[in-house]
Design a protein that fits this description.
Heme Oxygenase, Chain A; mainly alpha
């Protein structure tokens, strides 16, 4: 399957994400609150672009079943944004005035460029890494949960079947609409690198 091949080809970036100080801080609960606040704000900004990319993918699809799937995936992003709104209320984050970091802009600009000008296969190849990586990280970090873990909600969200199911659906769609080619490989790998950079950005910005 193409989705498995692309995941395997990028295993080194996956490992670096899992070992990243941001992710390790989520796992053991030591991630600084201010760093997590910055991450939440940037992720909410990113998810709005992810939502638009799904909408543009649906507009490019001639298959009604694919359109229905994109509609379901968009609903999932809306639910994820509700989670971020909950974080914002608890942590005092103004999600209406988020200035994207360079790493965030690089990722969102890439997704929108692909969504507007790429093929359906390229769009899906660019979007799978986010879903697949977060499912992987949630599963890996689920063993770190303990009573009153400060990032319990994050870990439970991304290790849940509710998140895993749409990630698998998107991977199945990739297998259905794409073939192994340089443009697809490049889109997938660039998105994976963007994910790694995204974890670094809130740790590098001064308070």
């Amino acid at each position: 399957m193409l989705h498995g091949l692309l995941w395997q080809l990028n295993s080194e970036i996956t490992r670096r994400c899992l070992e990243h100080p941001f992710v390790r801080g989520l796992a053991d609960g030591t991630l600084e609150r201010e760093v997590f606040k910055r991450y939440v704000a940037q992720d909410a900004f990113f998810l709005r672009t992810f939502l638009r990319a799904y909408a543009l993918a649906a507009a490019k699809s001639d298959d009604l079943e694919h359109v229905r799937l994109f509609h379901q995936l968009m609903a999932g992003v809306v639910d994820e944004l509700k989670l971020h709104a909950g974080y914002a209320a608890k942590l005092g984050i103004d999600l209406g005035h988020v200035e994207p970091y360079p790493a965030t802009s690089a990722y969102t600009n890439f997704l929108l460029r692909i969504a507007w000008h790429g093929s359906l296969a390229e769009i899906v190849a660019a979007m799978v890494p986010c879903m697949r990586l977060y499912t992987f990280l949630g599963s890996e970090l689920s063993g770190s949960l303990r009573p009153e873990h400060p990032y319990e909600d994050w870990i439970k969200t991304y290790s849940s079947d509710d998140f895993r199911a749409p990630a698998r659906q998107l991977e199945s769609l990739l297998d259905n609409v794409a073939v192994d080619c340089p443009t697809g490989r490049d889109a997938y790998r660039y998105a994976m690198q963007c994910e790694l950079d995204f974890f670094s950005a809130p740790m590098e910005v001064p308070p």
